[in-house]
Amino acid sequence: MSTILYLSGITGFLMAWAIGAQDVSNALGTCVGSKAVTITQAIVIGGVFEFLGSLMGGEVAHTVSKGIVHSSAIQANIDLYVLLMFCTLLGTFFWLAFATYFSLPVSTTHSLVGSILGLGLATYDIHDLNTKTLSRIIVSWVTSPILGGLISYTIFFLIYHKILARPQPEKEAIKFLPFFYSFTLGILSLFLCLAGPQSFRLPFYHALGMFCVVCLFVWLFINYRLVSRGVRSASISSIQLHPLGETKADVEVNAPKVEQEDVRLEAAEKYFTGLMILTACVVAFAHGSNDISNAIGPFSVVMEANLHGDISTDKPVPKLVLVAGGVGIVVGLATYGHRVMSTVGEKITKLTYTRGFAAQIGTALTVLSATMFGMSVSTTHCLIGAIAGVALVESSSKINTTTLKKIAISWVVTMPASAICSLTVLWITYLVMDPSSRPK
Hints:
Elements: H1 2-22, H2 25-33, H3 39-56, H4 63-67, H5 71-76, H6 78-101, H7 108-123, H8 131-164, H9 169-195, H10 204-228, H11 236-240, H12 248-254, H13 260-269, H14 273-308, H15 319-346, H16 353-372, H17 379-392, H18 401-432
Helix pairs in contact: 1-6, 1-14, 1-15, 2-3, 2-14, 2-15, 2-16, 3-14, 3-15, 6-7, 6-14, 6-18, 7-18, 8-16, 8-17, 9-10, 9-13, 9-14, 9-16, 14-15, 14-16, 16-17
């Protein structure tokens, strides 16, 4: 079994690499698409927060790896399940690498579930599979993008009609800035307390109290900063005619080339840059803490069986394993993350700071709501739905339907494709293994 342990360690790292290359686009794709940060800056930001989040993970490492097959069937033949976990890691990696190469944003969780389901159907009785878990995953295919789209549509609808469509958008942006900052930071604190790393989580009413305290403090602080800088009392002409970082002389030179309305919108948009980057950092942190289990969950099963002879959920994952998983995620983001990031940030619809912010906070709210109601959702699906919802506020023509169809097809084929990859790995493994060492 030691050979399987070493091979699973290597494939677990490869799986973490695939998660970094594939799923980190959830947090940073909108920032890149709206030009708030460059791809290089996004890789640095995402790498730092994904790695920190991965160090906080581990408590849920067994959830996916043991949720599809009933524990009684696992304990009845541990050697077989260990082999299946190795095949799961390698088969899922192959599918995610394929999807990443073709810039397709797919769910790593659904890929992993597809692998375990395919292997489970091939090696276990149908009664040994957890059909309740499977049905919730299938339902989430529909609920995730719809819920993300509805929430982001509502948020950007308010931003568009209360700020961007007004005659003086920058003035309106300044007026609503304390509300958006307090709401965003309050939601992000609630997100971490209810859906973030296990060590951050609080009971619901304690988390709600934290939300209220953060909202009040941030609202007072932002108002104080605006007043102390004299922004609240500034004249309309001083706040609406030039974007941040430009002087009045710059605007006068550029005035013949740029419509005044575009200049006003750009100035209003830039107030949302910090909000969008802040939201992306928190989503990356929470993503690293939760999705690291997709890589180390199956490996931890192999490790426990090899070291202790059984599989248990109450043994903590060693920090060294978490560090290795975090490094794999960062390496994947740095080497191949730009491919899917480009699809999410640029090829679905044109993103600006306000649109990227609405999509990000909508994704966080969707994952948070799903966690509170016990729903299983995909962060990838939530974000794609959120971006589409933002685009629908202005017109359906703003959406690149060709890209959306391509993404939808990749979602549908994710579970069967991942299952086929893992079954192929299992078949090859049985061919090369000594017949006497094959699990029965």
